[in-house]
Design goal:
Length: 204
């Protein structure tokens, strides 16, 4: 729905979409480096809750683009979309690193590559599942291409609010996460349900 709105609602070109993808990838790499350089000693629980909260805020900022409030403030559509995309990708990079560390810690010695591949597969499964759920949610409000081309964005902003709110759901289980590497080391091999929970959180 996001790209559909950018193309059919705001007339973004393929080149602009490509630039947004590149900027997103670079920003996510920047998030990984920022975590390693400055946030490595922070609690993983705090990391997850803060990055989720900030992510929700920037996700909701898309509503300003949908309602065209950015134009009223003199900010171009591409500039606003680029800023929103970059910050979201940066936050995603910061949030992703602890997940990688947990995945590697759960992997048997000498099989870290295989373990990481398994968790990556679960991550891709989560993305596919999220896409299916998103396609179902689109049916709640009219977000069809024809409606967006006609200039009716009411369904888009409502769907944005709903999907942003759904990001709060995984926080309910964040207390199961270890605080850091030391606690992670103590948990490895001792709790089957922790491993099952982590896989579920990774998919979410």
């Amino acid at each position: 729905t996001g790209n559909t709105f950018l193309v059919d609602g705001l007339d973004f070109s393929n080149f602009q979409l490509g630039v947004l993808s590149v900027m997103s990838a670079v920003a996510q790499l920047g998030g990984l480096m920022a975590y390693r350089g400055f946030l490595e000693e922070t609690s993983w629980r705090v990391n997850y809750m803060l990055t989720t909260g900030v992510g929700i805020i920037f996700s909701c900022l898309s509503i300003l683009l949908v309602l065209r409030l950015n134009s009223d403030a003199g900010i171009g559509d591409f500039a606003f979309a680029a800023g929103d995309t970059v910050f979201l990708a940066f936050i995603t990079g910061i949030q992703f690193m602890p997940s990688v560390l947990i995945a590697l810690a759960l992997s048997p010695v000498g099989q870290e590559g295989t373990g990481f591949a398994v968790f990556t597969t679960f991550g891709n499964l989560g993305q596919s599942l999220g896409g299916c759920i998103g396609n179902g949610l689109v049916r709640i409000w009219d977000c069809s291409n024809e409606t967006i081309k006609a200039g009716d964005y009411s369904g888009v902003w409502k769907l944005t609010v709903l999907t942003s709110a759904l990001q709060l759901v995984p926080i309910a289980w964040v207390s199961f996460l270890p605080h850091g590497r030391e606690e992670m080391t103590n948990l490895v091999g001792s709790n089957f349900w922790f491993g099952a929970f982590f896989v579920g959180l990774f998919i979410a």
